Amino acid sequence: MTNHLPIIAIQVLFLGAFISGLVGYKSNSLRKFVIFLATGTSLVLTLMLFKPVMMEGQIISYWMGNWVPVSDWAIGIGLEVDQLSLFFGLIVTVTVFLGAIYSFKYMSKDNGQDKYYVVFMMLAGSVLGFVFTGDLFNMYVMIEIMTFAAVGLTAFRNHKAESIEAAFKYLVVGSIGSSLILLGTVVMYAQFKTLNLAQITALLNNAQHTPVILFAFALMIGGYAVKAFIVPCHVVAPDAYAAAPSSVSMLFSGIVNKAGIYGMIRLVFVVFASMNLPSMQFLLVFLGTITMFIGVTMALAQSDFKRLLAFHSISQIGYVLTAIGLSTILGLTGGLYHALNHTLFKGLLFLCAGAVLYSTGTTDLNKLGGLAKKMPQTAGLFLVGAFAISGIPPFNGFVSKWLVYQGTFAKSMETNNPGYVFVTIVALIVSVMTLASFIKVTQSVFFGQLPKEFENAEEVPLSMRIPMWILAALCLVAGILPTAVIDYLIKPAVLAIKSAGNYVAVMMGQEYATKIYTEGIAIPKYDYAMAGWNPTSWLILFGVLLIAFALVALTGGFNPRHIVGAENNNAKFDVFFSGEAAEHSHVAGNDLFWGLKHNLKGYFHFMHDVHNGVVNDYALMVVSTTALVMLYLFLLVK
Q1: Closest CA to 328 of 403, 431, 391, 400
Q2: pLDDT digits over 94-105, tens only?
Q3: Residue of higher predicted confidence among 417 and 589
Q4: Residue 4 resides in a domain
Q5: Which residues contact 556 (CB under 8 A, 6 or more apart)?
Q6: Which part of the chain is the NADH-Ubiquinone oxidoreductase (complex I) chain 5 N-terminal domain (predicted)?
Q7: I need a labelling partner for 275 at 20 to 30 A (CA). Which of 166, 253, 387, 568 fits?
Q8: Residue 587 has pLDDT above 90, yes or no
Q9: 301, 427, 609 from 400: Cα distances, Å
Q10: How many other C-beta atoms lie within 10 A of the C-beta of residue 638?
Q11: Residue 388's domain spans which residues?
Q12: Would the pLDDT of 585 be above 50?
C-alpha cells in the first residue's frame, strides 16, 4: 500500500481540479468542500510517507502500469520518492492546504471562483508530481503544467491591466524556460535512450562530460533558473507576485520557485553528479550571491507591499542557492533549512499582505499606515514573519541564516579561498538590509497615523487568520527546535542528495547499482550551539541590529525635513519641537530610504532599466544567461 501513496497523493489533487470544475458553478459550499477534501487528503497521504521514508530510510518507487525495467533497462514511467523528494513534497502539500483554506474567504469578492480553484489545483498537482517523479520527461510535463497554471492564476483578475501584462510576461519567459528544459531532455534521451533519472544517473557516474552532455546540462540549468527566479532570470517574478491574488503569491513563493530549486538540486547533485567540481560550486555560489544582493536592494526601492515581498522572495532564494552551491554537508543543511523557512515566513508575509489588501483595497505603502489599531492580529503576525525573514531569534530564519554564514565561512577555511569570506559578508549585509527594509514596511503599513479612508478597516475573517496563525507557529517551532527539524527533515534530505547509489538501487535493482556505486556518508551531529544558540552568535546578532538601525539613520531615513516634506522648512515642523504636522507625520514607503536611493542612484537607474517591462529584453536575458552558462561549462567543467 505504501508504494501507492505518492501516485494517489498526486491524483487526488488533479481529481479535485476536475470535480471542483464540475460542481463549482452549482454550489460554492460544495466546491469548497471538494477543495478542502482534496488538499487535506493529499497532505495526509504525504504525511503517511514520513515514517517509512524519513525515519526508516526507505525509498518508495512506483512504476506506472507496472512497466518495470527489462534487462536492466528502464522503459516505463516511474515515481521515486526519496528523502529529498518527500522533503519538498511536504512543503508543497502543507502550503497548498493552507493556501486553499485562506482562499475560501479571500477570493469571495472575486468572480469566476470555479475557474480559480481548477487552476489552483492543477498548479498544486503539477508541483507535487514534479518532485515525486523519477522520469526526466515527466519532470518537463509537470513543470509545463505548473507554468501554464501559474500564468492563468497571474491573469485571474483580468479586469486589471497589470494582471494581463504580468501574465503575458510570465507566459513568454516561462515558456522559454520550459523550452530549454525540453530541449535538454531531448538531447539526453538521444544520448542515453532512456528517460529514467536513476538509470541516467548510473550511466553518467564517473563518465566524462562530453560537449553534448554539457550542452544539455546548460540548457536545463538555464530552464530551472527561470523556474526558481534566479537573477538574472527573475525579471517576471515581481510583476507576477504583485498581480496574482495573495493566496497565489504564497504558492509562487512557497512551492513554484522551490520546484526550480528542487530540479536544480536533483540535476547537479544526483543526475550529473557535478558538484564535486570547484567550477560548479563557484557557478551556483556566484548566482546565489548576486541573487540575494540584487533582490534585497530592489526591495528597498519598492513602494508596493507585494512587489517588495516579491523581491525579498528572490533574495531569500539566493541564500538557498548559495548554501547548496557550497556542496558541503553544512552548506546543504543550511540551504535546505532555509528553503523550508522561506516557505513558512514568506508564505506568512504574503498572507498578511493579502489581509491588508482585503481590508483596505490597496497595497501602496504611501497610502497605508496605522493599521495596527484596526488589525492587531495581522500586525502581530506580520511582525513574526518580519522577524523571521530578518534572522531575528527565536524565529526560524535566524537558525538557517546562521548555518549559511557558518557554511560559507567554513568553506573559506577548507579551501583557503578568501572569496567565500566575501560571500559571508554579503550574506550578513543582505540580512541587515532585509531588517532595514521591514522597518520601512512595518512603519508604512501598521504604525503611524491611520488615514481617514481606512477608519472602517477591520480584522480579516477567521478562516484567513487560521493559516496565518499556523505559519507563525511553525516559524517559532522551527526556530526553537532546530535539532529536531534537522534530525527528522533536513538530515535525511541531505543524505539523499549525497547518496545517489541508493536512488539508483531502488529503481534499477541493488545488483545494478552495486556494479557502479560504493559510497557512504556521515552527517555530523547538530546541537543548539551549532544552530546559533550561543552567546557569541547573539553578540554578533546584536552588532548586526545596530548596523541595521545605523543604516536607516545614516541614509536619511529619520531626517525630519524629509519625513514631513521638503516644502515644510519652518522649525515648527521639526519632530523635536513636537509641531502638529511633525507629530502626526507618516514615514511613507517612498521616504524611508531616500538617502540610500539618492547615493546609489546610478545603480538604481541601471536596475530600473533592466526591469523595463519589455518582454523581448526579458527573453534575451534568459537566452543570454543560458548561453553564458553553456560557455562557462564548456571552458571550465570537465
Answers
A1: 403
A2: 999 999 999 999
A3: 417
A4: no
A5: 562, 593, 594, 595, 596, 598
A6: 67-117
A7: 253
A8: no
A9: 26, 12, 34
A10: 10
A11: 162-636
A12: no
Instruction: Please answer whether residues 149 and 128 qualify as being in contact, where contact means their C-beta atoms are separated by less than 8 angstroms.
Output: no
Grid cell in block for residue 411: 568553506
Measure the CA–CA gap between 482 and 468, rounded to whole angstroms.
21
**DSSP states along 555-622:** TTTT-HHHHH-TT--SGGGSGGGT-HHHHT----TTTTTHHHHHHTHHHHHHHHHHT---HHHHHHHH
Burial class of 476 by CB neighbour count within 10 A (0 to 12, 13 to 18, 19+): middle
Sign of CA dihedral 258, 260, 263, 265: negative
Instruction: Please state, in angstroms and rounded to a whole number, the distance separating the CA atoms of residues 320 and 88.
Output: 13
Tell me the mean pLDDT in the region 65-71: 82
Question: Quick one: which of 631, 587, 624 has its CA closest to 370?
Answer: 587
Nearest to 328 by CA among 523, 131, 55, 597: 523
Instruction: Tell whether 120 is covered by a domain.
Output: no
Dist CA 265 CA 277 (whole Å) = 15
- What is the arithmetic mean of pLDDT over 494-507? 84
Residue 121, in any domain of the structure: no
pLDDT band of residue 217 (cuts 50, 70, 90) is very high
> Which residues face 304 on adjacent strands?
364
Q: How far apart are alpha carbons 157 and 246 in whole angstroms? A: 12
State the total domains in the chain. 1
Encode pLDDT of 132-159 as tens digits: 999 999 999 999 999 999 999 999 998 8
The cell numbers describing 566, all together, are 521638503
Query: What is the signed CA dihedral for 508, 509, 510, 515, rounded to 10 degrees?
Result: -50
Distances (CA, A) of 146 to 141, 178, 307, 528: 9, 10, 22, 38
Q: Tens of pLDDT along 220-260?
A: 999 999 999 999 999 999 999 999 999 999 999 999 999 99
Instruction: Give the three cell numbers for residue 154.
Output: 497571474
Q: Is 236 part of any domain? A: yes
> Residue 205, exposed/middle/buried by CB under 10 A (0-12, 13-18, 19+)?
middle
